[in-house]
Amino acid sequence: MTTDTTSDDPLAALDGTARATLAAIADHLIPAAHGMPSAADIVTDGRLRFVLGARPDLAEGLVAALRPGLGVDVASRLATLQRDEPANLGALQLAIVAGYYTDKRVRELIGYPGQEAIEVKSWLLPEYIEEGLIDKVLERGAVWRDPATGDRAVVEGLPQTYAERFAGMPDDSQGGHDGPDGA
Amino acid sequence: MATDPADVLIVGAGASGAVVAKRLAEAGFSVVCLEQGEWHAKEDYPGTRLDWELQARKAWATSPNIRELPQDYPVVADDSPVEPLMFNAVGGSTIIFAGAWPRALPSDFRVRSLDGIADDWPLTYHELLPYFYRTDRDFGVSGLPGDPAYPPDSEDAPLPPLPIGAAGMKVARAHTRLGWHWWPEFNSILSAPYDGRRPCVQRSTCQSGCNEGAKASTDQTHWPKAMALGTRLVTGARVRRIETNEAGLATGATWIDREGGEHFEPARVVVLAGNAIGTPRLLLLSASSRFPDGLANSSGLVGKRLMMHPFANVAGLFEDPLLSWQGQFGDLIESLEFYETDEKRGFVRGARWGLAPTGGPINTALPSRAGEQIWGPDHHLHVKTHLGHGANWGLFAEDLPDEANHITLSKTVTDSSGVPAPEVHYSMADNARRMLDFHIERATESLQEAGAYKIEVDRLMRYSGWHLLGTTRMGDDPATSVLDRWNRAHDVPNLYVVDGSCFVTSTGVNPTSTIVAIALRATDHMIESRFNQQVPA
Ligand SMILES: Cc1cc2nc3c(=O)[nH]c(=O)nc-3n(C[C@H](O)[C@H](O)[C@H](O)COP(=O)(O)OP(=O)(O)OC[C@H]3O[C@@H](n4cnc5c(N)ncnc54)[C@H](O)[C@@H]3O)c2cc1C
Ligand code: SF4
User: What's the Cα-to-Cα distance from B144 to each of B36, B157, B158, B182, rounded to whole Å?
Assistant: First the structure.
């Protein structure tokens, strides 16, 4: 991890005391437990720089939440922030949580690979149809209320099964659902 | 800027404005659209990046009051338990909408006749049906045909349904055991390549823009086509008033550019598509000596009867991993089992349920919207048990119209152009409160039957004003409505409102599919009656 702080560095706003306070709070909120590391060990300069680089607007609230005037006791600092300065508390919690959960090791430990691209296989028959779940819904008949009668609609000849509903429909299940202008 | 008046000037390039522009351009009209926001490239959306959840809480937040971008306008909501949400850009709120695409139901258009409350609409479900089919094709809708919660269709959704995920399967099986309705959700999200667009990859970041272009936002689906046909779309153009002449006809719009310069755009016909907050705001801003209470407001109803669908979230936690951070954020499945009125329940009308994915780790780790905070050693257990282990029923309760729910112009707050911001005055009715309580209980039973070992309820979420409706209602009587049945202002014969402001009642479903079908219907009528249209000399 680099500790270099240039004037463009988002960490420049946080001095050594503020960093130490942040570490203490991080450890209080997310301590090492249940096989997971402490946020104090994870939210180091690199992660914090990432968070403040992405969200420079958090810096002001973070600096305010870490100011020495709020005392040394972490729990009473958090209680004061919760009562009097919820926005500053929000910035502090978000900086710690975001620093922690954007860390590669933490993501591995919680089994979260990030939001992934997963192919949609729309040409396969969905499991719920194979399992007959759609047939059960169709069997129960219309659900909508008919304005003409005010009662649940009675529709004669509604298909009772998925197979019946789709009998005679062209088989376009091989992909290629390109629209009017082509894909 | 332009000196020759356009045939039609549209204010707002969101869902409804785009539908009108494309249709009019196809019919050979000259069209100009003024939009205060900008274009966004798919690559700009944060969904593929490590900082996605950080950006979703600021630059890509759903509330303009959090984003605070220059193209946004603040919405003062101190007098409302619900914050109106929207996006201001080419594509409007469809840029960040979830893509759930249910239609309003037949009973929704007959609330007064059926339930003795509120009002009937001046149109019916079956009148709208052909427009639903056309807009489904234009937006690219995926869904399984045959849902028995609706009358039988003569045309199927153009694309097969999206996956319903492990959570959807659990709940579908539970509803089969309970004998309750469920159906794979209709979404305006592509399940296969269509119309030059790529299919969904289930990344679940739909509410911060779709990096694939799989979700229908009108910057993808409509504007390129409208512009290829000659429509002129001016961005960074904030309309501050609609001008009128001595005959009481609209003559065009005065607008402010990014640098503060003022312009006038003349037109023969003006169409407002700024959503149910932006449109009444503009009508109130357009007051004049002839229209002292705001334009088109002889009924006094401009800005009144705001409806936002009171919303509750019922989350079930499951032992099994469900990978529930993935999947389209439009819904996986829906239930309309308790949608229609049953007076034994102690309220009228009902709510639609949509089962949605549950979000990433930062969202899971931070205090919930209900204020629950888990810190200390148990924080890790909280994240492990919640992340990817949840199924969320979102409950959209029908909001009945009430004139006390209204918007006014702020005397103190303005947007970045110095134009007064709208102020929202809103409270939830007892009927909706009882409705939410009932539906929360039923949704809890649903998730318990599906195997959830714990249920967490978020009642009336504050940041849930996604659906903005009702503030210039349509109707046949000019004394009790702002617009006629073709979306034309009773008071100003060449002024139309095509967004969700026109809704008479809110329905209990996500509204965009219905908004755009109504907008298309109004446009077809505008085209058919073009030779009878009164225009300024
Ligand atoms: C987070 C989120 C999720 C949603 N999910 C769903 C969903 O799953 N399903 C569903 O059906 N609906 C959903 N919605 C609602 C849906 O987005 C809206 O119903 C739809 O976009 C409304 O279309 P519209 O044309 O009325 O207005 P919008 O799409 O909001 O567009 C209005 C446009 O007008 C412009 N404008 C306003 N005033 C001015 C002015 N004075 N000058 C210039 N330009 C102006 C705005 O900048 C904006 O671009 C969601 C909304 C949000 C915010
Ligand atoms: S889940 Fe699908 S629609 Fe949503 S953002 Fe991802 S690709 Fe787009």
Answer: 37, 7, 10, 12
* Stated pTM of the model: 0.96
Task: State the amino acid at position B464 in one-letter form.
Answer: S
The domain locations on chain A are 16-110, 127-165
CA B13 to centroid of ligand 1, rounded, Å = 9
CB count in 10 Å sphere of residue B419: 18
User: What pLDDT digit, counting tens, does each position of A120-159 carry?
Assistant: 999 999 999 999 999 999 999 999 999 999 999 998 888 8
State the Cα–Cα distance between residues B444 and B499, nearest whole angstrom: 34
State how far the alpha carbon of B189 is from the alpha carbons of B26, B133, B135, B221, in Å.
24, 15, 13, 11
Q: Are A97 and B365 in contact (CB under 8 A)?
A: yes
Q: What is the per-residue pLDDT for A170?
A: 43
CB B534: neighbour CB atoms within 10 A? Answer: 12
As a whole number of angstroms, the distance between CA A18 and CA B161 comes to: 52
Cβ separation of B326 and A116 shorter than 8 Å? Answer: yes
Domain positions in chain B are: 6-532
CB B332 within 8 A of CB B324: no
Which structure tokens are listed for B385? 């048990």
3-class SS string, B272-317: ECCHHHHHHHHHHHCCCCCCCCCCCCCCCCCCECCECCCEEEEEEE
Closest CA to B490 of B339, B354, B225, B295: B295
By the CB < 8 Å criterion, does B105 face chain A?
yes
Contact A115 B326 (CB under 8 A): yes
Span from the CA of B76 to the centroid of ligand 1 (angstroms): 17
Distance between A23 CA and the closest CA of chain B, angstroms: 14
Q: What is the distance between the alpha carbons of residues B113 and B165, in angstroms, rounded to a whole number?
A: 39
pLDDT at A176: 35
The residue type found at A135 is D
Q: Which CATH architecture has domain B6-532?
A: 3-Layer(bba) Sandwich (3.50)
Report CB contact under 8 Å: A155, B164.
no
Residues A39-85: tens digit of each pLDDT = 999 999 999 999 999 999 999 999 999 999 999 999 999 999 999 99
